[in-house]
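Sat 14:20. Reprocessing the chain from the morning session after the first attempt stalled halfway. Input below, unchanged.
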Amino acid sequence: MAFVYTLSDLKSRMNSGIQGKKGILLSQDDLANEAVREVGSEVRLRSKRRRQTLSPNLFSGIFEYACPSDLHSFDIIDIPAQAKREDGEFEFVPSEQFRRNPRKGDISIDDFNGVRILLINSEVDDNEQTIDPVTSISSNGLVWEAFGDAENVATDSDRYVKGSGSVEFGISSAGGTTAGIFTNDLDAIDLSDYILSAASIFTYARITDPTNITNYKILIGTDASNNYEYTVTTRNDGTAFAAGQNLLRFDLATPTATNGSPDANNIVYAAMYMTKTAGKISESDYAFNWLTAKKGKYHDVTYYSKYGWKTSTGTYIENATDESDFLVADTDEYDLIVKKARSLAAAEVDLPQSKIKELVDKYESARMNYQNENPSEEKTIISSYYGY
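Finished this time. Tokens:
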């Protein structure tokens, strides 16, 4: 749909409804933006439905994903598959319930520290290949050793996410720029269906202090000289590294580098480590746990956006800043916004109460008519305190 109504159009129609008193308004632009935001909060406009590809894929057992930055409130419509649907109907639940009582088919939004993440508990068949559980420093002939400035590599049977333990290490006082663990003892794993394709490797990294950590890397290949190198600078959900357990996702389609001539059919070497500043020394309680490759399935996220404007160059924005910015609205939606703007402006320019009431009533009547013809498709939050 090509949007045609601009900020200039809205201000002109608003002014005609308040007897040409636009000069009394403190800011026409601010009031116009307020009107658009208020309508967006009161009505789910069909023109503000958005579809965004879930990045990178939807996985079973991976719960945290990047949330659309323009999501309005909790207004998720669906997580549809791009091909064959394997999940049934998703139910939207509070984030506390999602984590306390995880159930297949639940979705939620978690807000914390000024960020938002999308939570999805899916049952898609994502073709998983476990590389190593990373629950012990040694098992079945496999040994994890210190990489770079790592020291005191050991099994931690108390702090882990999956399995029965994790492999912990400290950072020495050497002053190098890497620290982690590696092994030469993988059991000749065939990852040819995963490497250089739309698949990902996941691991949990326990971080004591994220200060002075530049990124995390994984090397996967034949040996220390022949491997695929991958780098991440955020957690799986797109948020920054933080103290505690961090789920890392390395997308396998585009390596940071290909070192030597690795054989994806014969993976026996893996290294997981942080890149750090030379001054990050003498720390303890870092760890890795779980190392697996997953393909996942292509999915979208459909939702209502909080961005009510679109620039002349095609960028969606929350507030208009230029006369030529377009309203994200069809004709009937534009008329609804005009009525809201007039009712707000009438109160600000101190029109008679009877006139203000007339404009408010016109907006409310138009709002109810629109909602009757365009019922919201957002998911209702279903809260169950007890699980039976």
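The first helix runs from residue 7 to 16.
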